[in-house]
Amino acid sequence: MSMEQLTNKKCVPCEGIGRAFTPAEVKTHLGEIPGWVMDQDGKSIERAFSLKNFIACVDLINKIKVIAEDEMHHPDLHLTGYKNLKVVLYTHALGGITENDLILAAKINQLG
Questions:
Q1: What are phi and psi of 72, to 5 degrees?
Q2: The architecture CATH gives domain 3-109
Q3: Cβ distance 70 to 47 under 8 Å?
Q4: Nearest one of 69, 66, 93, 88 to 77, comparing CA atoms
Q5: Are residues 106 and 67 in contact, defined by beta-carbon separation less than 8 angstroms?
Q6: Which of 100, 105, 97, 108 is nearest to 64 (CA)?
Q7: What is the mean pLDDT of residues 49-72?
Q8: Are 100 and 12 within 8 A, CB to CB?
Q9: Residue 96 to residues 23, 25, 61: CA-CA distances in angstroms?
């Protein structure tokens, strides 16, 4: 699925998804979403941002917050070293990566 297709979709309630993707399925989809990598256990995807300063990180967090609330799908956000932000996505209810995670990753990428 392309970035454009993902950004035009909405996240669905976790109960309606069915199952998490296999690591092989995730790898196929991640090729369409630059900057995101799958963790070693194949249970989450993440992207690291190194920004100008603390304010830029908090600004990005606030932009992600708006998207996450709109999609009702929330990432784990890790701010370290005052300018490094790691965004981790997985579907908690299913213990793995679903289309919701890919949708949110694509929409976060649109932030620039």
A1: 55, 40
A2: 2-Layer Sandwich (3.30)
A3: no
A4: 88
A5: no
A6: 108
A7: 97
A8: yes
A9: 9, 12, 23
